[in-house]
Structures are given as structure tokens and as C-alpha cells.
Design brief:
Chain lengths: 113, 115
């Protein structure tokens, strides 16, 4: 089954404790991205990767890092989480961005206390 | 910069009534346009997309959208609402000109269907 898998689905952590949210896709897609969803703000792009060689900041990259060492995986890293990073996070992949459909993971609800 | 506006953060319709969810984009060059739906506790899934073929686009679950360049709009419609249509709907654009092909999402419209 074609899918984007995120883990964990739910996470509660404390301020400053490094965490990683994993994302994996099995569709051989080139383009992957991370979004955060906040009430009234819709989805905002954190980082995107056009392929394993190109990764760049989205609209709200502060406090986040990503890595694209292989095509299928695109983990999101929070080196020192803060309460304002409490949000619902989505990973998405598409064949090449642009006109192609984005496939989304189930989401990770992160709470930073 | 490219942007997308969804009018109405909440829309309520009666079951069987017309659904109309509004989306306007800002770009001199028509972008790629999408509508996604998000059911509770789930990720987003594609309803339909416009990529410069037919201006009237049909999607899943009886939804359709019409691209109107003169109005820079891509409104989503469904002739008859069903209870299962209750969800949050997002309009998104992808800029053809920047070279990054990033998606930009609207703030979403939550659709409530009344029995």
C-alpha cells in the first residue's frame, strides 16, 4: 500500500529535550516536505526537499532541522523544543512537487511543556 | 509572493443543500491549484486539482471546482451535501514560476452538515 508513515503519532516532551519525528514514504517520490498545522493558520511549510541533494527552508523553519540522506526518509529534528512548537505536524511527499499530488502522513501531535 | 485566501473559516449547510467553499489566489501567472480534505484525526487527502487543462475539474465524492482566471478563483462545490462531507477543506496552490514548486495552503474551511 502506498503510504507516508510518521512516527510517533503523539508525543509529549519537555522544553529543551531533543526529539526526532520520523517520516518514510514507499512511493519513490522525489519531493518531501514538513508542515505544521495550527488553528486559524492552516498548514505552513517548515522545510522541503526536492530530492536527496536539495533541501531548503520553508516559511517557518526556525527551531527545526531536517535530513534527507536517502530518498524514502525525511526526519524532522527539534534540537531544543520550546512550547511554541506545540502543534500538529504533517509529513508529505509527491512525485516531484508542482502539479503532482501530495500524499500526507497521519500526523504527529506534539506537546512541549 | 504567492498566497491563497479561503473565505469563511466555518461553513454550515443542511444535508442535501449545495456546498460552496471559496478560494482565491494571488498570482499573475495561474498556479497549479488543489483542494484537499482532512477528516478528524487524519492527514490530508486530495479531492481534485487544476493543472491548466479543463477549467471545470471533477474530483472524488461528487465535488468539483471551476478555475476562473478573471476572478483568480477556484471555488469548490458539491450539489448535495452528505453528512459524511463534514470535514476541514484546504485550498492550496503551487507556484509555477519560482522553481521550487512548493505548496501554499489556505487557512482552511470547516464544513458542518446539519441533519
Amino acid at each position: 500500500e502506498a503510504q507516508v508513515t510518521q512516527n510517533p503519532r503523539y508525543l509529549i516532551t519537555v522544553t529543551g529535550k531533543k526529539l526526532t519525528v520520523t517520516c518514510s514514504q514507499n512511493m519513490n517520490h522525489e519531493y518531501m516536505s514538513w508542515y505544521r498545522q495550527d488553528p486559524g493558520l492552516g498548514l505552513r511549510q517548515i522545510y522541503y526537499s526536492m530530492n536527496v541533494e536539495v533541501t531548503d527552508k520553508g516559511d517557518v523553519p526556525e527551531g527545526y532541522k531536517v535530513s534527507r540522506k536517502e530518498k524514502r526518509n525525511f526526519p524532522l529534528i527539534l534540537e531544543s523544543p520550546s512550547p511554541n512548537q506545540t502543534s500538529l505536524y504533517f509529513c508529505a511527499s509527491s512525485l516531484r512537487g508542482g502539479s503532482t499530488e501530495a500524499f500526507f502522513g497521519q500526523g504527529t501531535r506534539l506537546t512541549v511543556v | 509572493a504567492q498566497s491563497v485566501t479561503q473565505l469563511g473559516s466555518h461553513v454550515s449547510v443542511s444535508e442535501g443543500a449545495l456546498v460552496l467553499l471559496r478560494c482565491n489566489y494571488s498570482s499573475s501567472v495561474p498556479p497549479y491549484l488543489f483542494w484537499y480534505v482532512q477528516y478528524p484525526n487524519q492527514g490530508l487527502q486530495l479531492l481534485l486539482k487544476y493543472t491548466s487543462a479543463a477549467t471545470l475539474v471533477k474530483g472524488i465524492n461528487g465535488f468539483e471546482a471551476e478555475f476562473k482566471k478573471s476572478e483568480t478563483s477556484f471555488h469548490l462545490t458539491k450539489p448535495s451535501a452528505h453528512m459524511s462531507d463534514a470535514a476541514e477543506y484546504f485550498c492550496a496552490v503551487s507556484d509555477r514560476t519560482s522553481g521550487t514548486y512548493k505548496y501554499i495552503f489556505g487557512t482552511g474551511t470547516r464544513l458542518k452538515v446539519l441533519a
